[in-house]
Amino acid sequence: MAPAQPILLEVCVDSPDGLDAALAGGADRIELCSALEIGGLTPTPGLMARAARSGRPVHAMVRGAPGGFRLTIPDVEAMLEDIAAVRRAGLTGVVFGASLIDGRLDAGALAVLRRAAAGLDCTLHRAFDLVPDVAEAVEVAVSLGFDRILTSGGAGRVADGLPRLEATFAAAAGRITVMPGSGVTEAVLPALAHLPLREIHASCSRPLLGTPGEQALGFAGAGLKRTDAGTVAGLKAALAALPR
Where does the pLDDT of residue 206 fall: very low under 50, low under 70, confident under 90, or very high at 90 and above? Predict the structure, then answer.
């Protein structure tokens, strides 16, 4: 029997320092964003250029504004430009999603974006966590040619979303990678060990405190975090030690 493949660790970062820490800690892949404290937005051109020189696969978030994932025509047009910018920067993939008002995936918008991203690795982000029917949403993702689904199991943290995570893996049936993410730490891994994991998504971060002046003026709000190289290395070692 062939040995089990190592579980890939994707680390999400939103700054040059965070990128460097993720690389130093041994992240296998980078999800590149801005504003992780609000779920991640499209990264800046400068950060994309730096990440493109990292020597690791880098997938850029394509999300223009905070809030939900219901997209207008102008939203989609802007995202098409962002996907083109990611391609020009030389990154390997994109991360995006779109929802209808009832939480179902917006298959029409996703199809337009997926066509524009042809040749790039494509992750369906946590818009998936809003869907009312996991099996139906998995079929949409598979039919559109997404490479993976990032999901917390519909909860704030993966530890609270295990039943739905299990249902997602069952519906995927190996046709698309299911990547658990949100609140993934070394302490949580044993609860996920029974799943057929291929990839894990984590921030591996610690709180980042602004100065009183920055906070008073609204430049450094609550929830800011920064990737920690030691935490990345610890999580990667814990993944390698999981029974497979």
Answer: confident
Q: Which residues contact 215 (CB under 8 A, 6 or more apart)?
A: 221
Q: Is residue 2 part of a domain?
A: no
Number of domains, the chain: 1
Q: How far apart are the C-alpha atoms of 100 and 6, rounded to whole Å?
A: 36
What is the token pair recorded at 13?
Answer: 């970062």
Bridge partner residues of 181 (DSSP): 201
CATH number, domain with residue 235: 3.20.20.380
Strands 205-207 and 225-227, how do they pair? antiparallel
pLDDT at residue 217 greater than cutoff 70: no
DSSP character string of 20-49: HHHHHHT-SEEEE-B-GGGT-BPPPHHHHH
* Residue 107: inside a domain: yes
Reported as a single tens digit per residue, the pLDDT across 1-51 is 455 789 999 999 999 999 999 999 999 999 999 999 888 999 999 999 999
Residue 109 domain boundaries: 8-241
Is 85 a member of any domain? yes
DSSP 143-207: HHT-SEEEE-SSSSSGGG-HHHHHHHHHHHTTSSEEEEBSS--TTTHHHHTTS--SEEEE--EEE
- Distance separating alpha carbons of residues 84 and 102, to the nearest angstrom: 29
Q: Are 126 and 152 in contact (CB under 8 A)?
A: yes
